[in-house]
């Protein structure tokens, strides 16, 4: 299960940086990394659940 609070916070920080006076895509790297990590954890949990079934 994804953590809605963590993804909401990450998305809000990315949006704030992108709409600031000097927008940059630096925060995008962190946002993508967190998304990939959440995806990997979900995939592992689904794999283990399918294996146990």
Q: Could you characterize what this model shows?
A:
The two termini are 18 Å apart. The protein is 79% helix and 0% strand. The chain has helices at 4-18, 26-52. It is an all-alpha fold and 53 residues long. It has one domain (4-52). It has two helices and no strands.
Mean model confidence by pLDDT? 82
The total of helices stands at: 2
- Tell me the domain tally: 1
| Low-confidence runs of at least 5 consecutive residues | none
Shape: elongated
The sequence of SSEs as H and E is: HH
Q: What is the gyration radius calculated from CA atoms?
A: 15 Å
Strand content: under 5%
Helix content: over 70%
Q: What is the structural class?
A: mainly alpha
What's the N-to-C terminus distance?
18 Å
| Biggest pleated sheet | none
- What's the total number of strands? 0
Q: What is the compact description of this entry?
A:
This protein is mainly α and 53 residues long. The chain contains 2 helices and no strands. The mean pLDDT is 82.
Key traits:
79% helix, 53 residues, mainly alpha
Topology of helices and strands:
Elements: H1 4-18, H2 26-52
Helix pairs in contact: 1-2
């Amino acid at each position: 299960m994804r953590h809605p609070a963590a993804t909401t916070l990450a998305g809000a920080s990315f949006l704030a940086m992108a709409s600031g006076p000097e927008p940059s895509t630096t925060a995008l790297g962190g946002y993508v990394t967190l998304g990939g990590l959440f995806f990997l954890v979900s995939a592992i949990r689904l794999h283990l659940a399918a294996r146990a079934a």
